[in-house]
Amino acid sequence: MKILVKLIVIFSLLISSVQAVTFDVLVLPADLLNSKENYYGFDEVSEIVASDIINDFNLSNGKIKSPDLYEVRAKISQDSTLKTSISNTLKKYNTDNSVDYKALKDIGKDFSCKSVLLISSSVTTNKNSLKRGIWEVLEISTAFNAEYPYRLETSLVLIDTLNDIVMWSNHYSTKIGANDNSFEAKNYAQANEILNKIRLYSKNIVAKSASQNIILRFFPKSVRTIDKSNLDNSNGGALKFDRNLPQAPLEPSENNQFYGDMIYGI
Question: C-alpha distances in angstroms, 232 versus 64, 135, 170, 236?
Fold first, then answer.
């Protein structure tokens, strides 16, 4: 009987130690070093998405921890070499989605993180392949009454810096502007309304889907997905949530402490 009790205690300790494992992920938005340089003084979309994902990570019951953008900027400001490395790495990813694995390995070490999430976001049209920030496009389209089918494109890639591999990546795309393709803000209030819609899109669609799919990479089977038809916004208008967006996961149960089978060596 005593042997059985000891085995149960040992098994319980092993289970609890497995559940206590935490992974550190560094989140780097492409606009980290040049945010709020737009006419409106708003956060860039990549920064908004990054902040929402970091918040989701840090609310994941200890599964994933991530330094917030304030901490990241504070550390960068104290190290010019690190700042240059991050700036060059983000510029490469933002320009053509290329990943500098060697630089990310060193950057990850500086932040004691073995995984790095890169986020890039821009606006494109069917007339021009040039990537522009959403607030720059809003200013131009308002000033010149330019009407195109504008789309907000957001790309994310999670890098395992130890093994130099992509653990997960995804691309999110949604139409912005009214049904007649107009996209304008003639005053600050209208621009702020668009910002609020961007924040909702980030929090409820991109960040929710991305953060919980990333958790699945570390803890498979720890969350479930929902029917993507729930993402459809039948009201139309700005930032309609397209049906072809990746599936967003359900909120995990507060009482569910199961972390799933973990991926080791990351």
Answer: 29, 25, 19, 9
Q: In what order do the strands lie in the sheet with 23-29?
A: 64-65, 23-29, 115-124, 150-160, 165-176
Q: Looking up tokens 């890039």, which residue turns up? A: 120
Query: Cα–chain-centroid distance for residue 265?
Result: 23
d(C-alpha 155, C-alpha 53), whole Å: 13
Structure-token pair, residue 20: 């206590």
Q: Is the dihedral of CA 92, 93, 95, 97 positive or negative?
A: positive
Contact 205/241 with Cβ under 8 angstroms? yes
User: Hey, which residues does 52 pair with through a beta bridge?
Assistant: none
Provide block-wise average pLDDT over 10 residues at a time, the chain (266 residues): 58 52 94 86 96 95 93 95 96 92 96 96 82 91 89 95 94 92 93 96 96 90 49 40 41 42 40
Which two three-digit tokens encode residue 30? 């492409």
Q: How far apart are CA 74 and CA 30, in angstroms?
A: 17
Report the length, in residues, of the chain. Answer: 266
Tokens, residue 148 = 């195109």
- The full set of domains in the chain, from first to last, is 23-231 (3.40.50)
